[in-house]
Amino acid sequence: GSTIGILGGGQLGRMIAMTAAQLGYRCHIYAPEAESVAAEVSAQFTRAAWDDQAAMGAFAASCDVVTYEFENVPVAALQPIPSEKLAPGARALEVAQDRLNEKNFVVELGGTPAPFAPVDTDEDLAAAIAAIGAPGILKTRRDGYDGKGQWRIASADDAATLSVPPVGLIYEGLVRFGAEFSVILVRGRDGEVRFWDSTQNVHEHGILALSFLPAAPIVREQVEAARALARRVADALDYVGVLTLEFFATEDGPVFNEMAPRVHNSGHWTTEGAVIGQFENHVRAICGMPLGETRSVSANVVMRNLVGESGLNAAEILSDPANHLHLYGKAEAREGRKMGHVTRIGE
Ligand code: ATP
Ligand code: MG
Ligand code: MG
Description:
By secondary structure, this protein is α+β, with helices and mostly antiparallel strands. It has ten helices and 17 strands.
């Protein structure tokens, strides 16, 4: 069988690998960390730094196709991978790993993000707040996830007391939204695009807590416009695989938040809640196989994340016989760490 290379060793890689195994593929994980919950379920593991070009070259040579489960892989590290082996391509990574690039890219395609301005100095921040107003959020352009690298700013005075790292930043106005949702699509090598239903997503402390169907009416009203944008993004990148765009549903229509060039936490429900889920369709797409039906199997779905140290009682969760439990096999629970999720389909 063929070998799928996965850059990144976390739970998304683990779930890609488990699905790939079901389809008869073997997986080779490449990650810098010693602990990899993806490597535990894969045939091979290369533990090496991203910029280890020799290790990356050997990894690429061992794989028929290479994908990523982590959007912060430095683009330069991909250089030893022949571009025809990489799916999605390097351009998707380059755009999506920098909040400024991704917002500019989406604006060019007709999307509407929150008002934003790049910030590199204290003066930039003061000017951004003067232009955009407060409240707002200051974010690192790169490397943020689960709300890390973000500072809420209530007023210009607030900003003066901040000590932020000396990296590229972006200031954005705080969006007043009715609900959050994501558009998750899969695009095949032939350009075919399929969408899953859009759940409503609820975040707590910057981390996804819940995704559910049916979403609020305001989400359902805005999904079509959001999908049209997501399709333009996928086409513009000649994207292959699963792509996610996050949105705020507002009185003025869908406001683009960010994109992820990969399978997504808010799509975990699709494993049991859609005819074919995001992991299987990602594997099918990158391997050039026919895409599967994305239709939901029920109008009612809830996916709940298991985050941090508390609330992890498997027996209690399974005492509801309709619950699907996914544990990621992480050795150590920490505050804000995603340990697993529970999906329930139906009323
Ligand atoms: P992820 O884990 O989704 O990649 P992230 O660290 O990239 O998270 P964001 O998606 O930028 O973070 O923000 C996390 C959450 O914070 C959002 O889902 C939303 O609830 C809130 N948020 C972020 N930016 C804004 C904004 N401009 N206005 C209002 N809420 C916001
Ligand atoms: Mg993000
Ligand atoms: Mg996000």
